[in-house]
Write a structure and sequence with these properties.
Its cofactor is Mg(2+). InterPro entries: Beta-PGM-like, HAD-like_sf, HAD-SF_hydro_IA, HAD_2, HAD_sf, PGP-like_dom2. The chain has 245 residues and is an alpha/beta fold. It folds into two domains: 17-34 and 107-236, HAD superfamily/HAD-like (Rossmann fold); 35-105. Helix content is 43%, strand content 11%. It has helices spanning 35-48, 59-65, 71-78, 84-105, 112-122, 134-143, 167-176, 190-198, 212-218, 230-236, and strands spanning 22-25, 125-130, 152-155, 183-187, 203-206, 222-224. It is built from ten helices and six strands.
Length: 245
């Protein structure tokens, strides 16, 4: 399975559980509500350097132009007149600040360990698929206690194209030798959701950092607020739906 552009989105329903072979997870905002820490890091460093005349960026600005995007794209957007080396150094410094904040404040999304135990019990293959730098992703996964859970880690910058292109998800599926018809993903951002949908995957949207309608518009099969959400377990355990999807 290669890095193929233009794959048609499939039906937005999750596959029958008995046909599932793999479950794929985004990291930032999906395993832990990390966006607030990224926002603080960007806000403080941009203010310190006098960006936008020193007026701090808003959460709406962060959600619209930064959240879920790859650092190379963010760097060009924020600093169009800088050379790439200068952008890369600034973003490296920002990620170092984020890791310091994460070490103190990062917590798993509610119900995450309940879900991951269910996934392990079912024997599904499992990968983390993220645009985060590898050092960030490894730390976040460790911080939520899932170092031994994931069998594979796909980093967007290590693929031909990062999210919002489907390449990272296609690479995860190829690694396991699993078809998109026999897998599904969890995502929290429109860019990540678009990448998974373009790879042919049905996606559960988690509303940790982005509004539900935005995730539905990006292709979410349905929405959950966290991993204890009854809407999720009614699907996974094939129980009668008791909450509005």
């Amino acid at each position: 399975m290669g890095s193929v552009a233009g794959i048609e989105p499939i039906n937005r329903q999750l596959p029958p559980i008995e046909s599932v072979q793999a479950v794929l997870f985004d990291v930032d905002g999906t395993l832990a509500d990390s966006d607030p820490l990224h926002y603080v890091a960007f806000r403080d460093m941009l203010s310190e350097m006098g960006y936008n005349d020193g007026i701090p960026i808003t959460e709406d600005f962060f959600s619209a132009f930064i959240s879920g995007k790859h650092n190379s794209e963010i760097g060009v957007f924020l600093f169009p007149d800088w050379d790439q080396q200068r952008r890369d150094q600034w973003l490296d410094d920002k990620e170092a600040l984020f890791r310091r904040l994460a070490a103190e404040h990062l917590e798993p999304v509610a119900g995450l360990l309940r879900l991951t135990e269910w996934v392990k019990k079912k024997g599904f293959r499992r990968a983390a698929v993220t645009n985060a730098p590898r050092s960030n992703a490894v730390q976040m996964i460790a911080s939520v206690g899932l170092t031994d859970f994931f069998e594979h880690l796909v980093i967007g910058s290590e693929c031909e194209r990062a999210k919002p292109f489907p390449d990272p998800y296609l690479k995860a599926l190829e690694h396991f030798g699993v078809s998109a018809e026999n897998a599904f993903a969890f995502e929290d951002s429109p860019a990540g959701l678009g990448a998974a949908v373009a790879a042919g995957l049905p996606v559960v949207g988690i509303t940790t950092g982005n509004p539900g309608p935005t995730l539905v518009a990006a292709g979410a099969a349905f929405l959950i607020k966290d991993y204890d959400d009854a809407a999720l377990w009614s699907k996974l355990e094939k129980e009668a739906v008791t909450s509005s999807l």
